[in-house]
Write a structure and sequence with these properties.
about 10% strand; mainly alpha; 7 strands; 2 domains; 10 helices; two-stranded antiparallel ribbon; single chain
């Protein structure tokens, strides 16, 4: 089993390295004059000698993982030009000079046209007149998808709660989604809440379950082609990390702060340990933020890189592209299923670490009191 894991890891590293090399070369070739200063700018800007546009892997990768004003599914080209299959989102702008401007993102025609004095540059809306200041209240695809995920989660959980109120799953066997949700709730209770939060586990169960399912459902929906990678967005993970940070602080006690500012170490190293302990207050939520962000983002990038290799090799030679397609698709499907596992794993790790940190914040004094009681008995 260990040999199989090492082999898979080696193949993934090799594929990712190849993709990185080719993407790097293409990005250099697309900068005017970067690859060859004497070459015409049109050839350096993503065009080959036949006048055909080359595949831009950077645009595809970052276009998927970054936020946007539309849900883009695919693009195709025919005799009438390039066509994009997407769902545009509304653009809501307010300028003190011009007032409100409301229109659809498709009115920009992917940056080719201006609308009401605004244009789209690199996925961002800017004013044609630099002197015009404005505020962007537009719901991006990350926001819309997060709201839809929250609505779906609420719908499922409310439906399950109604069944329990009727006695289904209590007096009789669970039905429908109860069969899928109940084992997860039991697992969180027995493996996360009770071992780390002690007698106060019931108080924190609603928070742990809400965060777990919220991360999970956003991660799963993000695997659907054309959707946004919400769980891999730093703003999404930062808000969850800040909530956990506040939860830790509000549930801390004097023993927790005493351990930070007066650690039980020799006096010579106490100033250093105080600095380390103070930094640990902020590194804990930071670890939660970066861990979730990096893991959810990396999987999407690897999948897109593997798919992009088909077009990168196809730009070199059509038959090489076709020949590499089965291997690329096989690896992509493999990573795709791994990402489903990662979605569950990262949601679990986030609430597990949160429970550990919260438990450390209020359990110190409890343990010390028991130690003092035991000493008195002895």
């Amino acid at each position: 089993m260990a040999m199989v894991q090492k082999t898979v890891k080696s193949l993934l590293v090799a594929a990712f390295s190849l993709c990185s090399i080719f993407i790097y070369n293409i990005s250099l070739a697309q900068e005017p004059g970067a690859a060859n200063p004497q070459q015409p700018a049109s050839l350096n800007e993503g065009e080959n000698h036949e006048g055909k546009e080359e595949f831009d892997a950077n645009e595809v990768i970052f276009g998927h993982v970054l936020d946007a004003h539309e849900f883009h599914f695919l693009s195709y080209k025919n005799s009438s030009g390039v066509h994009n299959v997407s769902i545009p989102l509304p653009v809501i702008l307010y300028s003190p000079q011009k007032g409100f401007s409301v229109f659809m993102a498709s009115d920009f025609h992917h940056g080719e046209k201006e609308m009401d004095g605004y244009r789209m540059e690199g996925g961002k809306i800017v004013s044609v007149d630099p002197a015009v200041k404005f505020y962007d209240f537009s719901p991006t695809r990350n926001v819309v998808q997060m709201i839809l995920a929250l609505g779906l989660l609420t719908f499922l959980m409310v439906g399950i709660a109604k069944k329990y109120r009727k006695g289904i799953g209590v007096k009789t066997a669970p039905t429908g989604w109860q069969n899928a949700i109940e084992p997860i709730i039991t697992f969180v209770r027995d493996e996360v809440a009770k071992p780390n939060l002690g007698d106060k586990w019931e108080k924190f169960m609603p928070f742990l379950l809400t965060v777990f399912f919220f991360i999970l459902i956003n991660a799963i929906i993000g695997l659907i082609p054309g959707t946004a990678n919400v769980a891999g967005n730093i703003a999404f993970t930062a808000v969850l990390g800040m909530i956990s940070f506040l939860l830790i602080l509000f549930n801390s006690n004097k023993h927790y702060w005493s351990h930070i500012f007066n650690p039980p170490v020799p006096g010579g190293v106490k100033p250093i340990m105080v600095l380390v302990e103070v930094m640990s207050i902020f590194t804990k939520p930071f670890a939660l933020i970066i861990r979730l962000f990096a893991n959810m983002l990396a999987g999407h990038i690897v999948i897109i890189c593997l798919i992009s290799l088909i077009f990168i090799f196809g730009a070199i030679n059509k038959w090489i592209g076709w020949g590499f397609s089965p291997l690329s698709i096989a690896f992509s499907v493999f990573i795709y299923f791994i990402e489903i596992l990662v979605a569950f794993l990262q949601a679990y790790i986030f609430i597990m670490l949160t429970a550990v940190f919260v438990g450390q914040a209020f359990e110190g004094g409890h343990n010390e009191e028991h130690a003092q009681d035991d000493a008195a008995i002895v």
